[in-house]
């Protein structure tokens, strides 16, 4: 049991390290020409599939727990305007891409560990932690960006 707890703790620590690296890499590539293509990623367009995968459950958990304090800038105020929505969308995109970079790093480490047959006990906990702390938040940012895009469309008409 202690080994499992150790692998789970190590997985969470590793995933948070990937989050920091993801933010650093994101800041390094933000002004590159290809970055504009990354701002329009949309993996799951179907709202029903989002619900089935639990993205809306994650949204509820974040809104009603201590996690909401981690990035308080990503909050839509009642006094919203077009510029505020554009800024909010850019911040969401920034967070999304940082999470995706962290997720990709996690997948690389998991793959390397698997291929090298090294610390195989950490593969499953690391994959679960990587998915929960990087993939799902990225999907949530995409979900929220679609909601912001709907509000922005109202300003155009």
TrEMBL record:
GO molecular function: acyltransferase activity
Main localization category: membrane
Biological or metabolic pathway of the protein: Carotenoid biosynthesis; staphyloxanthin biosynthesis; staphyloxanthin from farnesyl diphosphate: step 5/5
Cross-referenced InterPro entries: CrtO
TM annotation in the entry: 6-25, 97-116, 122-140
Keyword Cell membrane listed: yes
Membrane topology: Single-pass membrane protein
Keywords: Acyltransferase, Cell membrane, Membrane, Signal, Transferase, Transmembrane, Transmembrane helix
Gene Ontology CC: one annotated term: plasma membrane
Subcellular location: Cell membrane
UniProt family annotation: Belongs to the acyltransferase CrtO family.
Entry function: Catalyzes the acylation of glycosyl-4,4'-diaponeurosporenoate, i.e. the esterification of glucose at the C6'' position with the carboxyl group of the C(15) fatty acid 12-methyltetradecanoic acid, to yield staphyloxanthin. This is the last step in the biosynthesis of this orange pigment, present in most staphylococci strains.
Listed name of the protein: Glycosyl-4,4'-diaponeurosporenoate acyltransferase
Protein species of origin: Flavobacterium akiainvivens
